[in-house]
Amino acid sequence: MGTLTATSPQLCRWHDFSTTAELEQSAAHAILQAAEAAVRLRGAFHIVLAGGTTPRRIYAALRKADADWNAWHVYFSDERCLPAYHLERNSRMAMETWLNQVPIPPGQIHPIQAELGAGIAASAYAKTLKNIPLFDLVLLGLGEDGHTASLFPGHDLGSATDSPAVLAVGNAPKFPPQRVSLGAHRLSAARKVFFIVSGASKKKAIQNWLHGIPIPAAAIRPQDGIDVYLETTLFETDH
């Protein structure tokens, strides 16, 4: 594994792994370490989950962990405006892969009710987050176009300090067009942020990120910086 620094003004710690399995194992271990530290220091662990396909195997690994699940509080970075149990809902993937199989109290798992429509769901989720000034850990992925959560190029990223915590996204370039997403400023209100990136299709986005091109992922700027876990082949650029 290597650790390098990008030229972007965003503070990034880049961790590259020779195989996807090594990446996933290291990320799962880092998540559990963050949880243990948060519970020890503050008695609770507030984590925001990424959707999509990349974190699925990490979630599967976490369900086998010996963790203090009663102290976990789970939120979501974004959600698709689809019926509650639709196959492409982020919450369904996380529940089936992991959350339904560990004893986190149900009242401490907070899906986004995107089936109600983007505007209503965004407003309701902002109220859910109101009393959580800092997340302990935010997990995020990276799209081929550099998007993260449902923050897409050319759209409002919610980066300003007075931006809404949760955005109603319309006309997204990926299906479905209506989504709900935490804004960049709210996602940055975290003690730790991990990006989990795999797949050859992400290489151009990584090149742009390393070269300081302002992709949406570069708008996530927590005070302590971010950690990016990715495959070595994605780091084989001309940077």
UniProtKB/TrEMBL annotation:
Catalytic reaction(s) noted: 6-phospho-D-glucono-1,5-lactone + H2O = 6-phospho-D-gluconate + H(+)
EC class (word): hydrolase
InterPro entries with a match to the protein in the record: 6-phosphogluconolactonase_DevB, 6PGL, Glc/Gal-6P_isomerase, NagB/RpiA_transferase-like
GO MF annotations, alphabetized: 6-phosphogluconolactonase activity
Annotated pathway: Carbohydrate degradation; pentose phosphate pathway; D-ribulose 5-phosphate from D-glucose 6-phosphate (oxidative stage): step 2/3
Domain Glucosamine/galactosamine-6-phosphate isomerase positions: 19-225
Gene3D superfamilies the UniProt entry points to: 3.40.50.1360
CDD domains tied to this protein: 6PGL (cd01400)
Biological processes, Gene Ontology terms: carbohydrate metabolic process; pentose-phosphate shunt
EC assignment: 3.1.1.31
Family according to the record: Belongs to the glucosamine/galactosamine-6-phosphate isomerase family. 6-phosphogluconolactonase subfamily.
Function: Hydrolysis of 6-phosphogluconolactone to 6-phosphogluconate.
Protein name (record): 6-phosphogluconolactonase
Lineage: Bacteria, Pseudomonadati, Pseudomonadota, Betaproteobacteria, Nitrosomonadales
